[in-house]
Specification:
Residues 158-250, 318-355 form a coiled coil. One of its GO terms (cellular component) is bacterial nucleoid. May be involved in recombinational repair of damaged DNA. This protein has helices at residues 35-45, 76-81, 113-123, 138-149, 152-199, 205-217, 219-234, 240-254, 259-288, 293-312, 318-384, 425-428, 431-448, 465-478, 491-494, 521-533, 539-549; strands at residues 2-10, 13-19, 24-28, 62-69, 89-96, 102-106, 109-110, 124-128, 391-403, 406-415, 423-424, 453-457, 483-487, 499-508, 511-518. With 550 residues, the protein is α/β, with parallel strands linked by helices. It has two domains: 2-149 and 389-519, Rossmann fold; 177-337, no CATH class. Strand 1 and strand 2 form a beta hairpin. Helix 5 (152-199) packs antiparallel against helix 11 (318-384) and helix 11 (318-384) crosses helix 13.
Length: 550
């Protein structure tokens, strides 16, 4: 429940901090005193959008902070879900900077407005007159019925499976679409795959082929130079091999005279061994040089095939061709195995659908069972509120369609007059009747949900006398299960509150500000007397006020 609201630099409020408690709290004040400003500030901290017009002083930031006690409302799972620190007394803060930038915090952790809006649904229901149009909204009508039917846990399970079913259906449609497109391209992809597969390209093949071809195209120069290299190496008179042998012989004769000569001799011997090995390889290379026109043609044909494939697939290497081959294999395989994949997806859909059908059936049965109780409770409450002939016709019709909250269609019809025809609420109920119906609905919801706080903004407009007493009695009953805050103009309702707050304007140094204070018992008497008789309070009004309070 809301335990404290503090407001700084918002609209006509300079600085204000007020504590709230459980039970029924009343807020009164003259028209234009600023009650709507309080609701605006509360809406701001609960996620409403804001702009610079919210700032009283545009050179300072606006800060609205609400403390809410939440330990009894099973919200730990939600806080974990949105990655927030859970505190039994949670602090929600909203700031609007002079630049117009807005920031929101929950327990000092920055949050998006979407998180605040999710949190407000679980914490505070602000009900004003225009919200009576919710009564004609089918989803809200389901909310009323499901609250009495105790369908919360079943609906949570249904939503999980409903999302799963929609995801599977989406995947199934994507598979079918992909299959359709793949079928259209299958023959061409298969041709491309077979062509690449038969080519049997290797990663480094192109470089090897180009090197071989380069060698064969220069065979004469290679042969000539190899022959000359052998001549230089092996000539009996001036050949390098012969000269190295002579040099080796000369140094070996003096190697025993010093370590220096021995080292030189060994190095020449090493060079001689290496050179002899080189000459052997030159002889082998020279013997293997052979001109083969057929081999050149084969190499050219193979390279041309590779070049053509690379050009066809807009790539520059065999590695890229092999990647395309893998992709084509997947596409071909996808088409050839698609039927099995699609059938498996169909089976998944059938399994989830059966689970969803079973949950939906339980939801339908619970709703059907709850309708008589809901009808009786609403009609009894409305009779107390002066609508003795009010009747409801509520029917659930199972369908084959999957909706976000089950498989039912709901008919929620109303008749205000005896013998009158049933019709949609927005068509057959007046504004005053809608207000009383909504109050009755909220009473039913308060007894069947865990909502911590409800705020009624002048729901009593247009009623008086005994009906106002009945409205006050309903609010008192509701306040046993939740915190109820009522903004009212009726003294009969104001007198029923456990706590009473007054909104008033005050002028300081030519500047008007809105203030809120909690009234003492004596101040309540005066406030209610003023509500009864106006500014000129009579003795009879004071007496009447005391009677109402007692």
């Amino acid at each position: 429940m809301l335990t404290q609201l503090s407001i700084n630099n918002y609209a006509l409020i300079n600085q204000l901090a007020i504590d709230f408690s459980s039970g029924l709290s009343i807020i009164t004040g003259e028209t234009g005193a600023g009650k709507s400003i309080l609701l605006g500030a509360l809406g701001l901290v609960l996620g409403n959008r804001a702009d610079l017009s919210s700032l009283k002083d545009t050179s300072r930031k606006c800060v609205v902070e609400a403390k809410v006690a939440i330990e009894n409302y099973n919200l730990k799972a939600f806080f974990n879900e949105v990655d927030l620190d859970y505190e039994a007394e949670t602090i929600i803060r909203r700031e609007i900077l002079p630049s117009g930038k807005s920031r929101a915090f929950v327990n000092d952790t920055p949050v998006k407005l979407s998180v605040l809006n999710e949190l407000r649904v679980k914490l505070i229901d602000v009900h004003s007159q225009h919200q009576t149009m919710q009564l004609s909204d089918n989803s809200f009508q389901f909310t009323i019925l499901d609250a009495l039917a105790k369908n919360q846990s079943e609906l949570e399970k249904y939503v999980v499976h409903f999302k799963k079913l929609n995801q599977l259906k989406k995947e199934f449609q994507e598979l079918e679409q992909a299959q359709k497109e793949a079928n259209q391209k299958h023959d061409y992809n298969l041709h491309l795959f077979n062509e690449l597969d038969e080519a049997n390209v290797k990663v480094d093949e192109q470089e090897e082929l180009e090197e071989k071809l380069e060698k064969l195209n220069n065979i004469e120069d290679i042969k000539l130079n190899l022959s000359e290299a052998l001549e230089i190496s092996e000539n009996e008179e001036i050949g390098l091999q012969n000269l190295l042998s002579t040099l080796e012989n000369r140094l070996s004769k003096i190697s025993s005279f010093s370590k220096e000569y021995q080292s030189l001799s060994e190095r020449i011997t090493s060079v001689k061994i290496e050179f002899d090995d080189i000459v052997a390889e030159l002889e082998n290379a020279n013997d293997n040089v052979d001109f083969n026109p057929n081999e050149i043609e084969e190499l050219n044909d193979r390279l041309q095939l590779i070049y053509n494939l690379q050009k066809k697939h807009y790539v520059n290497s065999n590695q890229e061709l092999l990647t395309i081959l893998e992709e084509l294999a997947d596409k071909v395989s996808q088409v050839e195995n698609a039927e099995e994949t699609i059938n498996n997806k169909k089976k998944e859909i059938e399994i989830v659908s059966k689970k969803l059908d079973a949950i939906a059936l339980i939801i339908t049965k619970n709703r059907t069972k709850a309708i008589p109780n809901l009808t009786k409770e609403l009609e009894t409450l409305l009779a107390d509120l002066g609508m003795e002939n009010a009747r409801f016709s509520i029917k659930v019709k199972p369908t084959t369609s999957y909706f976000t909250n089950g498989k039912d269609e709901l008919s929620f019809l109303f008749s205000a007059n005896k013998g009158g025809n049933f019709g949609e609420l927005k068509k057959v109920a007046s504004g005053g009747e809608l207000s009383r119906i909504m109050l009755s609905v909220k009473k039913v919801l308060s007894a069947n949900t865990q909502l911590p706080t409800i705020i009624f903004d002048e729901i009593d407009t247009g009623v008086s006398g005994e009906v106002s007493n009945k409205i006050a009695a309903i609010m008192q009953q509701m306040s046993k299960n939740m915190q109820v805050i009522a903004i009212t103009h009726l003294p009969q309702i104001a007198a029923k509150g456990n706590n009473h707050y007054k909104v008033f304007k005050k002028e300081i140094k030519g500047v008007t500000t809105t203030n809120l204070k909690q009234l003492s018992t004596e101040e309540r008497v005066v406030e209610i007397a003023e509500m009864l008789s106006g500014k000129d309070i009579s003795d009879s009004a004071l007496t009447h006020a005391k009677e109402l309070l007692n």
